[in-house]
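Crash report, auto-generated. Payload:
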Amino acid sequence: MTNIYPEFERQIPRQGKEELLKQKGQAIWLYGLSGSGKSTIANALEKLLHEQGRYVVMVDGDNLRSGLNAGLGFTDEDREENIRRASEVVKLLVNNGAIVLVTLITPQEKFRAMAREIVGTDDLKEVYVKASFEACQQRDVKGLYAKAAAGGVKNFSGKTSNFEEPETPDLTINTEESSVEESVAQVLKLII
Ligand code: ADP
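Recovered output after restart:
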């Protein structure tokens, strides 16, 4: 990169931030179909950790799309760029000592591999929030499944664009079997 001089060396190192916050910077990446339960779990976890005096930052797909990633759509290429940018944001936050909870559909293994590559496997744990397409459709929290069925959502995950089941997540939570409380307790165990 010409004429770009990153300042990392002259800035306060990660360790200084972690000592200040009294925690280890780390990311928990929750992925799964729309309506599988990612935000419900992450929001409850944020509250719990916050009450414990821990510093948590949420990185949510829809939130990013309303700002940093406005303008990106849902084609394969745009999803990849969406996840690349999200991963860089996550890395920045982790390197500044934050506990980062990521909620992004992240439908394909190649996207997850990119997130691992950018954030680093030492700092990233993957949680597959699992629920069948039918269950998510029935919940239809955001009304997207009804819209998709009517043909109003392009490249909707689980329908026209495929969601690949992960092979080796750090944790799988089946939200058709576990309660929200049980799910939150399971994810909590992953946090150092
Ligand atoms: P996502 O963020 O994955 O799109 P949401 O969290 O917005 O999904 O919606 C998930 C829905 O499923 C909510 O209505 C929630 O109450 C319900 N639900 C049922 N069981 C669970 C569970 N174990 N964990 C999380 N959500 C659950």
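Post-recovery validation: The chain has a mean pLDDT of 93.
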